[in-house]
Write a structure and sequence with these properties.
Blueprint: E1 2-4, E2 10-12, E3 15-25, E4 28-33, E5 44-45, E6 48-50, H1 57-69, E7 71-86, E8 89-103, E9 112-116, H2 134-143
Parallel strand pairs: 3-8
Antiparallel strand pairs: 1-2, 3-4, 3-6, 4-5, 4-9, 7-8
């Protein structure tokens, strides 16, 4: 994806790689709601965050979930990818299925959380990058 720079020539948008976790437990998936002061305020998303330099996607996801929710997780298979352009940058979100292995769930950065069964996924207003992953998560939930 590109845009025109000040001289009118095409310039590539900077890309930010983000990861999210579809944490499944007892037939439900964890969703968190962004705060009022965050980008895409009050939208729902799979918890996660930016991949830092030198980190693999699974390492970043484990770190982010520990920071945001005080949970240890196992990162399993990649479920899908969403892409959105915000603030003149391209955000690429990879969402992985994950399982809790330890910790006590605490909401440290987000406004709210919900455990959702398959039919509840459509009831929320999701962040644009998370929306393409919803069918995969719904399918997993219906099988569990």
């Amino acid at each position: 994806m590109s845009l025109l720079d000040r001289r009118g020539t095409k310039a590539e948008l900077p890309t930010v790689h983000v990861v999210g976790a579809a944490i499944l437990q007892d037939g439900a998936c964890l969703a968190v709601q962004r705060g009022e002061d965050m980008t895409t305020p009050l939208k729902w998303e799979f918890p996660g965050g930016k991949v830092e330099s030198g980190e693999s996607a699974p390492q970043a996801l484990k770190r982010e979930i520990l920071e945001e929710l005080a949970l240890d997780i196992d990162v399993l298979e990649l479920l899908g990818q969403g892409t959105v352009v915000q603030r003149e940058r391209r955000i690429v979100l990879d969402v992985y299925r994950a399982r809790i292995t330890g910790g006590l769930l605490q909401l440290r950065e987000h406004r709210a959380l919900r455990w959702l069964v398959a039919q509840d996924l459509e009831d929320l207003e999701w962040a644009p990058a998370d929306q393409p992953i919803l069918p995969s998560v719904e399918q997993l939930l219906r099988r569990s």
